[in-house]
Design brief:
This protein has 184 residues and is mainly α. The chain has helices spanning 2-22, 46-49, 52-60, 64-71, 91-102, 119-125, 131-142, 144-158, 175-183; strands at residues 162-165, 170-173. It has one domain (26-183). It has nine helices and two strands, in the order ααααααααββα. A two-stranded antiparallel sheet has the order 1-2. The radius of gyration is 19 Å and the shape is globular.
Length: 184
């Protein structure tokens, strides 16, 4: 009986620890400084902006992605909106903007990641709305946690294959790595 209880307890402990290790980060790392982000120019991606926050994200490279994903649910407002025509921006909004921009090529037209909530998703769902309105309509319908979960699940699938494209100044999924993984 005692051995059975020890075995069951051990199994439960291993299960709980493995689930905890696989769960999405839940706290936004304040060292990213997203709540202190200031207004950015109307053109360009955040990685081109040169803000202290953008510099920090670029320095972190791929390690920044799960940190930004963790910030998607943070509703802490910035002092002033960082985007033109947005009445308010939150840390989660900025994390979303960063994730979208970091996975957008230098033409600003093509996402380099699929199966996530990004501007393509919002434009398809709310084609006649402004970026702010489409983002907040999506959040009202699905919630920030949903956006975070979708990004986190996709990140778990591709994190090994993501590379920084210096020429395009964005992250891309390395087609060679993805093809190699499928063959094995």
């Amino acid at each position: 009986m005692t051995k059975s209880l020890v075995f069951i307890f051990g199994f439960i402990l291993v299960f709980v620890l493995s689930v905890k290790a696989q769960s999405a980060p839940t706290r936004c790392d304040p060292s990213l400084g997203l709540s202190k982000m200031e207004h950015m120019p109307p053109k360009g991606r955040l990685q081109e902006y040169g803000s202290p926050q953008a510099t920090r994200v670029i320095e972190l490279n791929k390690k920044a992605i799960p940190l930004l994903i963790a910030c998607l649910t943070d509703e802490t407002p910035t002092k002033k909106p960082i985007e033109d025509y947005w009445p308010v921006t939150t840390v989660g909004d900025i994390a979303f903007l960063f994730l979208c921009d970091l996975f957008t090529d230098s033409s600003w037209q093509h996402s380099t990641i699929n199966d996530v909530v990004n501007w393509n998703t919002l434009e398809a769902a709310y084609p006649n709305q402004t970026s702010f309105d489409s983002w907040y309509s999506y959040l009202k319908e699905h919630g920030r946690k949903h956006v975070q979960d979708v990004w986190y699940e996709r990140w778990k699938q591709i994190d090994r294959d993501v590379i920084w494209d210096q020429k395009e100044q964005c992250f891309k999924v390395d087609a060679n790595a993805a093809r190699s993984a499928r063959q094995h």
